[in-house]
Amino acid sequence: MCFRFLSNLVKSSAAAVVAISIVVAAILYHPSLPPNFEYDAYSLEPLPLLGPLKLNQELNGAERLFEGEVKGPEHLVVHNNELYTSAHGGYIFKVTSKSLVPIVKVGQSCETLDSIVDVDTEIEGKKPMLPNSISVAKDGRIFWTDSSTTHKLNDGLMTVFGSPNGRYYLKGKKAGRHEVFVEGLPGIPDNLNRYGEQIVVCLVAPHSPMSTLLPELPNVRKFLARTLTMAQWVVGEINNLYQTTLLERAYHMIGHFEMLHPIQKYVEEPRATCVFLDESSGKITGSVHATDGSVVGVSGMVVHNGYFYLASPFNEYLARRKVIAH
Questions:
Q1: Which is an annotated Pfam family here (predicted)?
Q2: Which of 99, 214, 270, 307 has the fewest CB atoms inside 10 Å of its own CB, making it the most exposed?
Q3: Could you give the number of structural domains in the chain?
């Protein structure tokens, strides 16, 4: 009896292994399964927190302004000595000492002539999917970035599994080429802001074993991206048949960057870091940190009226810290 039980167990286990292997192979090697990125292997070797990256308490004790009144104040701009922020829901707010003043709401239906970006016109054979940020040149021209030509914001996590690009040259001898601008950052970079004659890049999350290991495993990244895509498709089809708020939320969350936020709370240090770079060479010249958990998930930083204001795509508050004079 015992021998028969063990024999059946071995057969069942072997059959399960074969079935799982077939499914994994189909997901990895089926030629038409999305997303069809380049999945190259590359390595990330974060620099030690020494020298210009040495931990400090410059951002410790950050104030949390408008907590519970705003979601995802991700991008900050100072214009005519007034501070503005974007937020979830499409609002642009002016930040005053006492309140967030709604200025405009983007994301409404617009005719093409009313839009900054024509999302229906292909650029070099691809439609813009995730217009992200703009910068106005000295001559008045507007440059805008498109973070993805394959996925929209609610699927932005999928793009992380592809291969990175780097700094792209608009003009000069290297026009049309891209290269690595800075290496060894001790976290995942997000927005770039100007800080005097330097560039400040904020690390939206410190590196974890997962974020340093996955780049070296292209097939694992490919499997995760395709599995999430299929899961989202299944949830979407079920929701088409049996529409519920729960299914709609699940469809929205699968592949969204916010999937990472709950995980980050448990696998990463509660730390915020912004790094200062030489704008031409990318050399790291300094950094500021919050090590007390008063602010996390920082994606950008601007200085306004003697304060560092700290943006975030996740936080439900706008953080600031008084600039410490040295």
A1: SSL_N
A2: 99
A3: 1
Task: Write the CATH number for 70.
Answer: 2.120.10
What residue type is assigned to position 291 of the chain?
Answer: T
pLDDT per residue as tens digits for the range 214-247: 889 999 999 999 999 999 999 999 999 998 999 9
pLDDT at 294 (0 to 100) = 95
- Three-state secondary structure along the chain? CHHHHHHHHHHHHHHHHHHHHHHHHHHHHCCCCCCCCCCCCCCCCCCCCCHHHCCCCCCCCCEEECCCCCCCCCCEEEECCEEEEECCCCEEEEECCCCEEEEEECCCCCCHHHCCCCCCCCECCECCCCEEEEEECCCCCEEEEECCCCCCHHHHHHHHCCCCCCEECCCCCCCCCEECCCCCCCEEEEEEEEECCEEEEEEEEECCHHHHHHHHCHHHHHHHHHHHHHHHHHHHHHHHHCCCHHHHHHHHHCCCHHHHHHHHHHHCCCCEEEEEEECCCCCEEEEEEECCCCCCCCCEEEEECCEEEEECCCCCCEEEEECCCC
Residue 47's identity, in one-letter code, is L
Residue 94 covered by a domain: yes
Residue 51 lies in a domain: yes
Question: Would 230 be classed as within a structural domain?
Answer: yes
Counting residues of the chain whose pLDDT is more than 90, the rounded percentage is 41
Query: Cis omega before residue 35 (within 30°)?
Result: yes
